[in-house]
Amino acid sequence: MSELLQTSLPTPTKQRFAATFRVVSRFSFWIQLALASTSGIALTFAVFSRSLSVATENAAIGLSIFLAVVGVLLAVFRIFWAFRGRVLARRLQSPERELHPRKEEVIQVLKIGLIASFIGMLLAFIASEVSAISILSQALAVPQGVAVYQQGNVIRSLDILVILANVNLIGTHLVGSLTSLGLLEWID
Q1: Half-sphere exposure of 39 (CA within 13 A, CB side)
Q2: Could you tell me which of 112, 91, 111 has the C-alpha nearest to residue 102?
Q3: What is the mean pLDDT of the chain?
Q4: Does the record's keyword annotation contain RNA-binding (predicted)?
Q5: CB neighbour list of residue 172: distance below 8 Å, 6 or more residues apart
Q6: Structural domains in the chain (count)
Q7: Is residue 159 one of the residues assigned to a domain?
Q8: Which domain holds residue 98?
């Protein structure tokens, strides 16, 4: 499959790669910013709506929130890294050759972004699985048609925001990893 791609894709010139790199970095930056902002807002609602005075028996949601916060921080780093890619692309388009970054520097930037996206995607996936399993176990613990009298068995709608935040984080990191992978494949 890789051989087929290599034969069909021409080797990019520096200017063509710079133009594509700039467009892809801009696309990646804005999409990741929108998805990470949505995740951050949903996570903020979930964190600040939790009653700190009432002890919760559901530690899984707390773990999921922690992993989601780490995922948001990685998304912020990845957004910064996408912006850095735009700066590198602008330097590549400069008419002054001494400002052009080396190919190794561009590859290193793309690889660091790819690694950050993969780690963020893994953490967001684990967090979404933990929170989904936690909510499912709460739902299965309550018999059908019976009123819930125990505070620990109540499924709060704000806990579902944690799942939403994690799914958006998976999308954020997926966009980052796809753009890095595509550019790495094209530059090599």
Answers
A1: 32
A2: 91
A3: 83
A4: no
A5: 31, 32, 35, 36, 39, 75, 78, 120, 124
A6: 1
A7: yes
A8: 9-51+59-187
Cα dihedral across residues 24, 25, 30, 35: positive or negative? positive
The phi, psi pair for 23, rounded to 5°, reads -65, -45
Angle at CA of residue 17, ends 13 and 32, nearest 5°: 175
- The dihedrals phi and psi of 140, each to the nearest 5 degrees, come to -75, -20
Band (3; pLDDT cuts 50, 70, 90):
low
Residue 146: per-residue pLDDT: 62
Say if 130 falls within a structural domain. yes
Whether residue 76 is predicted with pLDDT greater than 90 in this model: the reply is yes
- Distances in Å between the Cα of 135 and the Cα atoms of 19, 45, 57 are 46, 17, 12
| Residue at 4 is within a domain | no
- Over residues 14-26, the pLDDT tens digits come to 778 888 888 888 9
Q: Are 158 and 49 in contact (CB under 8 A)?
A: yes
Which residue type, as a one-letter code, is found at position 78? R
Q: Give the other-Cβ count within 10 Å of 184's Cβ.
A: 15
Q: What is the pLDDT of residues 97-116, one digit of tens each?
A: 888 888 888 889 899 999 99
